[in-house]
Amino acid sequence: MDASLIINNFLSPPILFFFLGMLAIFVHSDLEIPQPLAKFFSLYLLMSIGYRGGAELAHSGMTWEVGTAMTAAVIMSMIVPIYTFFILKNRLKMTVHDSAAIAATYGSVSAVTFVTATAFLQKLEIPFGGHMVAALALMESPAIIIGVLLYRYYSIKAAIAEQFSKPSLSGGGLSLAGSIDYTGHRSDFSWSELFKDAVFNGSVFLILGSLAIGLITGGTPGEKALEPFLKDLFRGVLCFFLLDMGLVAARRLKDLRKAGASLTAFAILIPLINAALAAVLAKMMDMSLGDTLLLVMLCASASYIAVPAAVRLSIPDANPSLYVPMSLAITFPFNIIVGLPLYLSTLKFFWS
């Protein structure tokens, strides 16, 4: 691996601002980003990448390359939560609800990781397609839905096993002690609410809407008029956002002390496995280097915005002090500091 890639990435302003935020917590500084501003930074970044992706898609049109990228994205978003669930449940002996929540977290994606990767590619002048923004949006929801399906299935299975293990003496034989709730642990569970949270939550809705607007107005005077706002300010806002992410990540690190070393190792090793699978799939589909790196980063990332919002509704037994700090305090820093240059160097070797 080219050491200069790690050094250049580490010394880039956004990454240094992320570490500045972490340092502020470690030295007990009172530095704080007001929550309204932090939310604005998130909305700005989502709108910017969505619009720019739509505009790029308008310029390139729907091609075979676009179709293969979308297909690869959907395949990975469906495979990752399934095998991670069974690793957590069978190998790490996690509960069904925590296994499902963590699997959904690592099957879904981080928009901020994607934004950092696009800035990294732009700095190195490596071209990539705007359609990868659509791939980002497509990968948000399937993992959430699959995670909930696994949770419901194995919860019902456990309930049935528990009922059969409780014999009743009525009639001189065995019978089920009580009735089984086949709707899961929550009688007020609503699939319509889950679908709304998974597909129409704010982050997904904004990026899809911005993508559509960019697709409609790409190549028009309207696109050029928005350039100072959506392009020139982008890296400055990204620095502010990663400063806030550094503050949040450092606060969450203490939550992982009770989780043990196994989940910490999982939060590093699973992104590497997901990245390798995505790279193989992209090579089979003959994707470009830039598009492949973005797909790899999406598959290696973990959600800490969309998934927690949906999991709170659909898997209420899951422990947020596990899946949130795993994705935010371990996987996210690992990907943007070490992962980006590591994945690019590896891809360059194979793509050459």
Describe the fold and architecture.
The chain is mainly α. Helix content is 76%, strand content 0%. The chain has helices spanning 3-10, 13-26, 35-60, 64-91, 96-107, 111-124, 132-138, 141-164, 191-199, 202-217, 221-232, 234-252, 261-284, 289-300, 306-314, 320-351. Helix 5 packs parallel to helix 16 (320-351), helix 6 (111-124) runs antiparallel to helix 14 (289-300) and helix 9 (191-199) runs antiparallel to helix 15 (306-314). The longest helix has 32 residues, at 320-351. The two termini are 14 Å apart. Mean pLDDT is 80; it is low at 172-187.
Secondary structure blueprint with pairings:
Elements: H1 3-10, H2 13-26, H3 35-60, H4 64-91, H5 96-107, H6 111-124, H7 132-138, H8 141-164, H9 191-199, H10 202-217, H11 221-232, H12 234-252, H13 261-284, H14 289-300, H15 306-314, H16 320-351
Features:
single chain; mainly alpha; 352 residues; globular
Question: How would you briefly describe this protein structure?
Answer:
Helix content is 76%, strand content 0%. It contains 16 helices and no strands.
Shape: globular
Helix-strand pattern, N to C? HHHHHHHHHHHHHHHH
Multimeric state: single chain
Q: Largest sheet, if any? A: none
Average pLDDT score: 80
